[in-house]
Design brief:
By secondary structure, the chain is mostly helical. It folds into two domains: about 250 residues, no CATH class; about 30 residues, no CATH class. It is about 55% helix and about 5% strand. It has a two-stranded antiparallel ribbon. The longest helix is centred in the middle third of the chain and has 25 residues. The chain is globular and about 65 Å long. Catalyzes the transfer of the diacylglyceryl group from phosphatidylglycerol to the sulfhydryl group of the N-terminal cysteine of a prolipoprotein, the first step in the formation of mature lipoproteins. One of its GO terms (molecular function) is phosphatidylglycerol-prolipoprotein diacylglyceryl transferase activity. Pathway: Protein modification; lipoprotein biosynthesis (diacylglyceryl transfer). It comes from Leifsonia tongyongensis.
């Protein structure tokens, strides 16, 4: 698109979707789904290593994912009303999540509500689940940002950098007055890189300081909020609301950082030690004992002598004692 500078080409428009029989599959949706699957598998493995029942994460995800998606869309529509509410607008498009427009801060709010409900039902500690999810959340977000690339969205201010992103001038978000061939900051790529770095940082911090009780999730909020505060400040389509000249989403990123700091301080004071279990008291899952062969069971009873006798059977102890005396 721009012959004077090196650049990152946007994928052909036909890559945004494909047909499978009577269905239209959106690449954006596949990226989001891939992120959810990867995060679920990784979170499950992390919880299981800490004593949780294998698969219990599904009890939480079934609540967290739907509410996260609903809140993500609602948050985006709320902060970009002009895109959906105007004379002659098709209000049904406010529900078309597959076309893009799902705010991560809304997803965090809705996901947290859903995770809390799921944890209450399953007996998991909410903060234990949050800590297990923290690095997996960054992985899911990195995968989801690829969907923005295929949708030709989430780009920033014009740039002459060699990694500038090519965006067609027919794109609804293309700023009026700029010449065709203008390159833009690839915010989706910046966030992918930031998230991947964050994964390694969180894993190192967790291993080094053995953070529990929600403190690792607090670090996630701080790290992600710092990155988003900058990316939101250079977006070409920031939220339509602002305060003190700062876009609403930048304030939301600042709020994530502050919330992370508060959670870390409060949980450090309340819980200086390690968690006794990922389950709440009285809801622990006990790993079933390994199955034992019947021959092994018989030999164990013989070796144990009097201790192997069922004391609830009248006369059993007396009979055993007589046999023992005779021998």
């Amino acid at each position: 698109m721009n012959s004077l500078h090196a650049s990152i080409p946007s994928p052909p428009p036909e890559w945004a979707s494909f047909t499978l029989g009577p269905f239209t599959i959106r690449t954006y949706a596949l990226c989001i789904l891939a992120g959810i699957v990867l995060a679920t598998i990784w979170t499950s493995r992390r919880l299981t290593k800490r004593g949780a029942e294998p698969g219990v994460v599904l009890d939480v995800i079934l609540w967290a994912v739907p509410l996260g998606i609903i809140f993500a869309r609602a948050y985006h529509v709320f902060t970009h009303p002009a895109d959906y509410f105007y004379p002659g607008a098709d209000l049904w498009k406010t529900l078309f999540i597959w076309e893009g427009g799902n705010a991560i801060f809304g997803a965090l709010i809705g996901g947290a509500v859903g995770a809390y409900i799921g944890c209450r039902i399953s007996g998991l500690r909410f903060w234990s689940f949050a800590d297990a999810l923290a690095p997996a959340m960054l992985l899911a977000q990195a995968a989801g940002r690829l969907g923005n690339y295929f949708n030709h969205e989430l780009f920033g201010l014009p740039t002459n950098l060699p990694w500038g992103l090519e965006i067609e001038s027919s794109n609804p978000a293309f700023p009026a007055g700029l010449p065709d061939g203008t390159l833009f900051q690839p915010l989706f790529l910046y966030e992918i890189i930031w998230n991947v770095i964050g994964i390694f940082l969180l894993l190192w911090i967790e291993r080094r300081f053995r953070l529990r009780w929600g403190k690792l999730f607090a670090v996630y909020l701080i790290w992600y909020g710092l990155g988003r505060s900058y990316l939101e400040s250079i977006r070409i389509d920031p939220s339509e609301y602002s305060f003190l000249g700062i876009p609403f989403n930048v304030w939301a990123a600042f709020a994530a950082v502050v919330l992370g700091v508060v959670i870390f301080i409060v949980q450090t004071r309340r819980h200086p030690g390690l968690e006794p279990s990922v389950y709440r008291p009285g809801r622990e899952w006990h790993k079933p004992d390994a199955e034992v062969d019947s021959d092994d069971t018989d030999s164990d009873d013989e070796d144990q002598g009097d201790e192997a006798v069922d004391t609830e059977q009248p006369g059993a102890a007396k009979a055993t004692s007589t046999i023992g005396t005779a021998s």
